[in-house]
Inverse folding.
């Protein structure tokens, strides 16, 4: 096929960025994100984009420059991982509370300490309450498509929130997959010109951005952020449907795989969903009624849709690639909370796996299903760790 | 020379009614620097006195576009704004000539924002960074910064039985900025409006990153009377505690040389409460005077250098 290209996850992200042609990109090197910026820097060097690329001296400055550029009315993108996200943390909150539609490709990597360069979701889970929309990609194809969709989603006049498009470090970012590309003209037509309502560069209408906001207004502004997230949740399905006409696939908040008649379901995010699908196909052939629910959008969290999809199941195992020390793992906690109001709910189990890039293989996932089926699963489990 | 009559006719880009203290040097700095250009200006402000006192939501004192992001990132923020301007101008979406200015206190510039400033300067964005230097963290209640002078008492260098006031000399940020090889670096003071506005005007017209360090007395932090800010700032210049100079394309030029009229530093120190505990300490005064004399001589040598 003409429009198919073998791309890594990072190449898929930088290719989407090239087609989007943002006004400003500010970024700093970090493994495993760096390849996104290598690719994009080449597009800048070759004159294939009009972007002003700011090669900042830290991720803190990357997000700070993104905030400045976005407030000045530019379409802005960046990318980062792990410690970079942690260093940006302060400004990540400022970006969302200033309601700036910045899109950031995140290549998920474990947070220090100890230092580690491989995949887990601790970096973006630490930002789950930051007011950013968070989407988790299973494949390079999703990275490519969702990066383009994220631009429109973040800039929607009733949303105006920044978006993180996350992919698994090394697993997705450095693995090569066939990616179906959209014609560049079609991408440009879809993202269209960004016309911000307010801009620092509108000299005729001077605005004050980022004022001090005390107890008499701060709370209302936070309430508006809550509303914006709710709006993102209600507007997203329509946008995804519209985008399906461009990319050929309807990216729902969640993606069920063989759940219809399943009794036992795994819930997980990102690349592990792919491994789980393989296991399901094998187990199905043996007559096991097993399925998967992939969570694509983690913020806003699609709680009702998840419950609707899974309320008649017998058991659910939630596979988290992050731990929450002293509490339940983040995705597990959300899922349990989502089912709280239900009278007849599935039994829900937690499996924390893959921290610091620890392998997750089909055998391990098969074991989870067999524990669900046999009733031998403990409430909270650690998959693949030496106890 | 700046024409005072003409200046008085200019509409201020920052309105009265803000919540800065009476006699505050920072407010004067902000107002005077923006007088340096007839072009529209866009301002980025680090967290600090100016920011908290001029934008208490839902009010603003700024008649020009203004952005505050955080404490340590005014330079990175303005580099984003300038980048947006550059690309939108290239695309023909903006036609007007706009000038960009970042204001940060010494805490936000010498200390927590130094990396951000250094990065933005090295990248060559076209903006003017002004450090309104009141020589301590005044907004958070007068703690020492790396701009606080030797001997000064602060809330984190209080007067105790074993330790009194700051034990270290301040670092020379102006020279650190000179080492960035940017086209224009200067020191000025609110006491010399001619010098300040001339330097601002010059800086605004130069392409690339510019840095001006401007002395900014803090009445509460320095322990001076509300109507003495300009007088004390003038003494800082006349004692050469705060020399006025500029470095254009690496070439040093002293803007004000008091010559034989150079006053002893005690004249500057004795009018401020933050130095009251050392004013009769001959050893300390000698140490400060020697430091000033050496720096002044060094500066004169630098001026003579034909780089």
């Amino acid at each position: 096929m003409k429009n198919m290209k073998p791309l890594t996850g990072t190449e898929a992200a930088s290719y989407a960025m090239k087609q989007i042609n943002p006004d400003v990109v500010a970024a700093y090197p970090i493994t495993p994100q760096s390849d996104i910026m290598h690719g994009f820097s080449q597009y800048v060097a070759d004159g294939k984009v009009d972007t002003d690329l700011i090669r900042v001296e830290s991720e803190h400055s990357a997000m700070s420059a993104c905030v400045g550029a976005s407030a000045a009315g530019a379409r802005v993108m960046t990318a980062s991982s792990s410690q970079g996200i942690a260093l940006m943390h302060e400004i990540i909150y400022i970006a969302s509370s200033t309601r700036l539609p910045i899109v950031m490709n995140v290549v998920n990597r474990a947070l220090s300490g100890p230092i580690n360069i491989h995949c887990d979701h601790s970096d973006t889970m630490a930002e789950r309450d930051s007011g950013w929309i968070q989407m988790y990609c299973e494949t390079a194809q999703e990275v490519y498509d969702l990066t383009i969709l994220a631009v429109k989603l973040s800039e929607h006049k009733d949303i105006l929130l920044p978006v993180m498009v996350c992919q698994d470090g090394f697993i997705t970012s450095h693995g090569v997959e066939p990616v179906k590309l959209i014609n560049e003209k079609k991408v440009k037509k879809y993202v269209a010109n960004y016309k911000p309502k307010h801009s620092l560069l509108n000299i005729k209408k001077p605005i004050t951005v980022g004022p001090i906001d005390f107890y008499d207004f701060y709370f209302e502004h936070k309430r508006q952020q809550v509303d914006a997230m709710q709006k993102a949740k209600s507007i997203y399905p329509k946008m995804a449907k519209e985008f399906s006409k461009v990319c050929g696939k309807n990216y729902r908040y969640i993606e069920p795989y063989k759940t219809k008649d399943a009794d036992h379901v795994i819930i997980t995010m990102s690349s592990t969903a792919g491994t789980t699908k393989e296991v399901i196909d094998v187990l199905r052939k043996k007559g096991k009624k097993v399925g998967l629910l992939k969570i694509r959008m983690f913020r806003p969290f699609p709680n009702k849709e998840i419950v609707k999809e899974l309320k008649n199941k017998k058991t659910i195992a939630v596979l988290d690639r992050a731990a929450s020390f002293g509490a339940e793992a983040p995705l597990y906690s959300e899922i349990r909370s989502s089912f709280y109001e239900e009278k007849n709910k599935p039994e829900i189990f937690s499996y924390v796996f893959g921290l610091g890039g620890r392998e997750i293989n089909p055998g391990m996932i098969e074991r989870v299903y067999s524990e669900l089926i046999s009733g031998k699963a403990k409430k909270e489990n650690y998959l693949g760790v030496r106890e | 020379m700046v024409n005072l009559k003409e200046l008085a006719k200019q509409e201020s880009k920052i309105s009265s009614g803000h919540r800065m203290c009476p006699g505050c040097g920072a407010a004067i700095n902000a107002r005077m620097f923006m007088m340096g250009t007839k072009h529209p200006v866009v301002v980025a402000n680090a967290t600090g006195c100016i920011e908290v006192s001029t934008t208490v939501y839902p009010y603003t004192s700024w008649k020009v576009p203004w952005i505050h992001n955080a404490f340590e990132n005014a330079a990175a923020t303005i580099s984003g704004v300038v980048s947006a301007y550059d690309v939108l101008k290239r695309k023909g979406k903006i036609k007007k000539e706009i000038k960009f200015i970042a204001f940060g206190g010494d805490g936000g510039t010498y200390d927590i924002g130094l990396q951000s400033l250094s990065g933005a300067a090295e990248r060559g964005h076209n903006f003017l960074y002004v450090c309104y230097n009141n020589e301590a963290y005044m907004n958070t209640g007068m703690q020492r910064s790396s701009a606080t002078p030797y001997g000064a008492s602060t809330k984190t260098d209080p007067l105790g039985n074993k330790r009194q006031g700051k034990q270290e000399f301040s670092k020379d940020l102006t020279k650190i900025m000179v080492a960035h090889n940017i086209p224009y670096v200067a020191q000025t003071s609110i006491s010399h409006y001619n010098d300040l506005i001339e330097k601002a005007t010059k800086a605004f017209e130069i392409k690339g990153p510019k840095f001006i360090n401007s002395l900014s007395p803090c009445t509460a932090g320095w322990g001076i009377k509300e109507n003495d800010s300009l007088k004390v700032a003038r003494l800082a210049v006349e004692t050469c505690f705060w020399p006025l100079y500029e470095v254009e394309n690496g070439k040093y030029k002293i803007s004000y040389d008091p010559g034989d009229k150079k006053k002893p530093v005690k004249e500057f120190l004795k009018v401020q409460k933050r130095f009251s505990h050392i004013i009769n300490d001959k050893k300390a005064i000698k140490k400060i005077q020697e430091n000033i004399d050496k720096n002044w001589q060094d500066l004169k040598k630098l001026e003579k250098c034909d780089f």
